[in-house]
Amino acid sequence: TIENGRVKDDQMLDDISVVANVKEKGLVIVTGCSHAGIVNIVKQAVELAGCEKIEAIIGGFHLVDAPEARIKRTVEELSKLNPSWVCAGHCTGFKAQVEFYLTFKERFSPLRTGMRFEI
């Protein structure tokens, strides 16, 4: 970021996601790194779309360096929103992916390069 003609460290507090309301399925929420927090992003998507049914949450969840308590709380809060499936990638981190698997079982998948999704 350039501010007053000088380069300033960008904390990447902004975020962007794509949300599709798929007929007869519900919301498909695709995130980048989820710097704003994956729970915040999903709740905002539900509010903006006016739809509480969540078909899928796909993306990085930015939990790679998060303390265990934050990981557990994040998984717990997403579980309350009852998505049909969760696919977590790059910046989610191994510990968080394990926690997602333990909670969501067959409704969880690690995100991989080249994956295709049929909704």
Explain what you see.
One of its GO terms (molecular function) is transferase activity. InterPro entries: DHPS-like_MBL-fold (IPR041712), Metallo-beta-lactamase_dom (IPR052926), RibonucZ/Hydroxyglut_hydro (IPR036866). This is MBL fold metallo-hydrolase. The chain is globular, with a radius of gyration of 15 Å. It has a single domain (10-110), classed as 4-Layer Sandwich (Metallo-beta-lactamase, Chain A), CATH 3.60.15. Strands 3-4-5-6-7 form a 5-stranded mixed beta sheet, with helices on one face. A two-stranded antiparallel sheet has the order 1-2. The chain is an alpha/beta fold and 119 residues long. The chain is 30% helix and 26% strand.
CATH architecture assignment: 4-Layer Sandwich
Low-confidence stretches: none
CATH topology: Metallo-beta-lactamase, Chain A
The strands making up the biggest β-sheet line up spatially as 3-4-5-6-7
User: How many separate domains make up the residues?
Assistant: 1
Count of separate DSSP helical elements: 3
CATH superfamily: Ribonuclease Z/Hydroxyacylglutathione hydrolase-like
